[in-house]
Amino acid sequence: MVAEVEVGRVLETIPYETLGPFIVPLGTCPACKAIFPTCLGIVGAWEHICKWEDAHGEVRDNVAEIVKAELSNERKSLSNIGDSAVRTLLGLLGFQVE
Questions:
Q1: Mean of the per-residue pLDDT values of the chain
Q2: What's the predicted TM-score (pTM) here?
Q3: From CA 63, how far away is CA 21, in angstroms rounded?
Q4: Local confidence band at 47 (pLDDT 50, 70, 90 cut-offs)
Q5: Backbone phi, then psi, for 28, in 5-degree steps?
Q6: How far apart are CA 18 and CA 94, in angstroms?
Q7: Cβ neighbourhood burial of 47 (10 Å; 0-12, 13-18, 19+)
Q8: How many CA atoms lie within 13 A of 96 on its CB side?
């Protein structure tokens, strides 16, 4: 499994500033159903998932699997993950894209 720190580094490379206008202002954590302001960003959502280990393990594992698949794709650099993967990650973390 990819370490939480490594996943966080990959998530930091996603240009949230350019995605922000296309994301619904409130997201919902898929594990605990907490509502959060999406302006906290992708890393903020990831930190929430990591903080509450027991209830959020499945979401954390799913996000780590997507990141692992992207990192193993030799054609891509760390800072250039695919649009499909970004959309999947956003969905897994509770963001809704308009």
A1: 88
A2: 0.87
A3: 23
A4: very high
A5: -130, 125
A6: 18
A7: middle
A8: 11
Q: How far is CA 48 from the centre of its chain?
A: 11
CB 30 within 8 A of CB 63: no
Q: Report CA dihedral (2, 32, 54, 86) to the nearest 10 degrees.
A: 0
Using the structure block, give the residue that is written with the tokens 């929430």: 48
39 in Cβ contact with 20 (< 8 Å): yes
Q: How far is Cα 86 from Cα 16, in angstroms, rounded to an integer?
A: 10
Distances (CA, A) of 33 to 16, 39, 50, 65, 67: 22, 17, 15, 22, 23
Asked whether the predicted pLDDT for residue 32 surpasses 90, the reply is yes
pLDDT in tens, 48-93: 999 987 889 999 999 999 998 888 876 556 667 888 889 999 999 9
- Residue ranges of the alpha helices (H) in the chain? 4-12, 16-19, 41-51, 53-72, 83-92
